Amino acid sequence: MTIGPGRSNPLGATVFPDGINFSILSKNCSGVALLLFDHTEAARPSRVIELSPKINRTFYYWHVFVPDLKAGQLYGYRVKGPFIPKNGWRYDGDKVLLDPYAREVAVPKLFSHKAAAEPGDNTVAAMKSIVADPRGYDWEGDLPLNRPLSRSVIYELHVGGFTKHDNSGVTPEKRGTYAGLIEKIPYLLELGITAVELLPVFQFDPQDCAEGLTNYWGYCPVSFFAPHSGYSFAKEPLGPMREFRDMVKAMHRAGIEVILDVVFNHTAEGNNSGPTFCFRGLENGAYYILEEDKSLYANYTGCGNTLNANHAIVRRLIMDSLRYWVSVMHVDGFRFDLASVLSRDETGQPMENPPILWEIESDPALAGTKLIAEAWDAAGLYQVGSFVGERWVEWNGKFRDDVRGFFKGERGTAGKLASRFLASPDLYLHNDREPEQSINFVTCHDGFTLNDLVSYNEKHNEANLEGNRDGANDNMSWNCGVEGESADPEIERLRNRQVKNFLTINMLSLGVPMLLMGDEVRRTQRGNNNTYCQDNELAWFDWSLLNRHAGLHRFVQKLIALRLNFESSKEDLGLTLSQFLQRSKITWHGVRLQQPDWSEDAHTLAFTLSSLSGRRIFHFMANSYWQPLDFELPPATGEAEHSWRRMIDTFQEPPEDFQKWSDAPRLNGAHYAVQARSVVLLARLADAW
Questions:
Q1: Average pLDDT over residues 269-293
Q2: d(CA 602, CA 625)
């Protein structure tokens, strides 16, 4: 083969009819070698191509054209240079490095996180990049769905854990894969959700955890372009890309959007004693925020290092990655993990106008893409309600905390609950935002499941082998009187009621509701609130719960259907709950009409919603007190068709806990007894109907 000088643009490995162009960036190195491998398990490269600084370097870019290579070729780099940590330089010519722009990554059976962290050659234990050509896939007319957030219900799930259990009903070889997820689309449709938010699917380091465990969540990326190969049942080199696209296309055909949880705040390379996979061996001082002592990494993420997101090189990498996943992989949106990190400058200080955040917001290729921020970081920066930009929406951590506090019976939460129900105007109204600015959730992957929120007072993370020191200590949970599982039917009824209370508030509040995988059937992690390293039945979806908690599953189905197709009036029929609430008059009450109780000791909240036409009226009552309370009802005429009907009462057993309008029982009298720790929704037609 006669190799050519190649060219700097585009970065990565690009397929041409007569060969492959390779290009990477390294500013301060002294030499680069391209390594070609015949297979994933190769102990040494089949060919080493040393790049000439005179022929194969332009500015900071090293490039070469190798003829006759095709998609599927495995490759890596060795980059030589000074190892002077105090200057921020950590070049190591013994390590095989991934291409930051690789579209696929191969992981050998002998892969070793430890070998990448210790001195010496790690070729046999190193991940390898794979040349991939994204052209040629038949999308069959598929495009991102662009569903309005006002018509969205998000379901956060783990690609592997959703189908890995042997009772999932998925084809055995496809369990825990993108293909396995396709087989469960009918379940998602039956549940009624409109979008899946997938925990990280970028290639990650499965050994980034205590020895003997496996990193399960995937918040430890080694690549920002390659779909995680461990989620692909197709074992050929280019299988993960094809299989991921098949999943997206199948989701879109079912009307379900695909949102990716993306980690642009840190990588799996960790702190100064961590492994060298890619970025640190290419240009450490550009990719990471370093301390004043440049041998140390700033740690605003709690994961050992922090990406230097507003550096020009990293900014380009992030933008190229986002555009790739939208234009080539057809995803519908992104949830940015620890998004506040992206607002920090090269010294770690928060910026008023962070370039990367504005660039993401204003990029025309992302104009229709959903942008969701986890608006805080691990170093105390908390930006819920003040995140930069006009398009960004936010995980509303205040919603989670205040809803938990109310149903736990804490003081001073009634007024907060009212605000959260209305999409937190105390947080967002000053920004003149739509209600959908608030992504409402009570539980997510990080913390207790909904079942465990009502079953445990304390975390139980011993299985993580960190002495139960990991995970949040303040969960605002209540075990309903018994720590852990209980055979007491009264305890179980109370827990079911509390779960339904949380779900009802989440689904009936203004904003965008998000539901955690398995909460609809009371999935438990046995009190572990940090299952990042539990790739086992502790964290997987146990499908036997679907029969055990069929009544709760039905309740969630009905809630979602009510939210997306809210019963209003003839002229409003088909409006979502969000649209109806924005067109309604709201009147606040306590147990007495027109007398809302905003005191510190209040445990009740009630309000009446009247459509602008005045024809459809709803009355909501919540009692977090430990005794039943009689609530006054707004008056209704004596005509039977205009009396109040009880649609929801979380105290009732299925199916009486949720009934559609036509089947809902009519009420008599001027009061309704809301049982202890219960939520009730009544509806009636006004006389004019």
A1: 98
A2: 9
Q: How confident is the model at residue 403 (pLDDT cuts 50, 70, 90)?
A: very high
- pLDDT tens, position by position, 84-106: 999 999 999 999 999 999 999 99
CATH placement of domain 577-685: 2.60.40.1180
Pairing label, strands 154-157, 195-198? parallel
Instruction: Kindly list the distances between the CA atom of residue 452 and the CA atoms of 165, 495, 532, 556, in Å, as whole numbers in the listed order.
Output: 20, 10, 16, 18
**Residue among 99, 261, 337, 535 flagged as catalytic:** 337
Q: What is the DSSP string of 440-472?
A: E-S--SSS--HHHHTT-SS---GGGSSTT-SS-
Q: What's the rounded mean pLDDT across residues 156-182?
A: 98
Beta carbons within 8 Å of 210's beta carbon, 6+ residues apart: 464, 465, 466, 533
Summarised one tens digit per residue, pLDDT across range 319-368 is: 999 999 999 999 999 999 999 999 999 999 999 999 999 999 999 999 99
Which residue has tokens 């825990």? 176
User: Domain boundaries in the chain?
Assistant: 149-279+324-564, 577-685
- The dihedral over CA atoms of 24, 27, 33, 38, expressed in degrees to the nearest 10, equals -30
Residue 381, burial from CB neighbour count under 10 angstroms (0-12, 13-18, 19+): middle
Nearest to 336 by CA among 266, 247, 231: 266
Q: Average the pLDDT over 677-682 and give the result.
A: 97
- pTM, two decimals, is 0.97
The residue among 127, 58, 103, 90 whose CA lies nearest residue 282 is: 90
Same fold flag, 149-279+324-564 and 577-685: no
DSSP 523-562: ---TT-S-GGG--STTTS--TTHHHHTHHHHHHHHHHHHH
304 vs 392: CA distance, rounded Å? 27
In the set 104, 197, 374, 520, the catalytic residue is 374
In this structure, which amino acid lies at residue 203?
Answer: Q
Q: Does domain 149-279+324-564 have CATH number 3.20.20.80?
A: yes
- How far from the centroid of its chain's Cα atoms is residue 363's Cα? 22
Query: Is 374 among the catalytic positions?
Result: yes
CA distance 472 to 147: 34
Q: What is the DSSP letter of 489?
A: H
Q: Is 205 helix (H, G, I), strand (E, B) or coil?
A: coil
Instruction: Please name which of 42, 57, 40 lies closest in space to residue 6, comparing C-alpha atoms.
Output: 57
Percent helix, strand, coil in the chain, to 5, is 25, 20, 50
Q: For tokens 């806990």, name the residue.
A: 657
* Cα gap 644→668, rounded to integer Å: 8
Tokens of 597: 């109780």
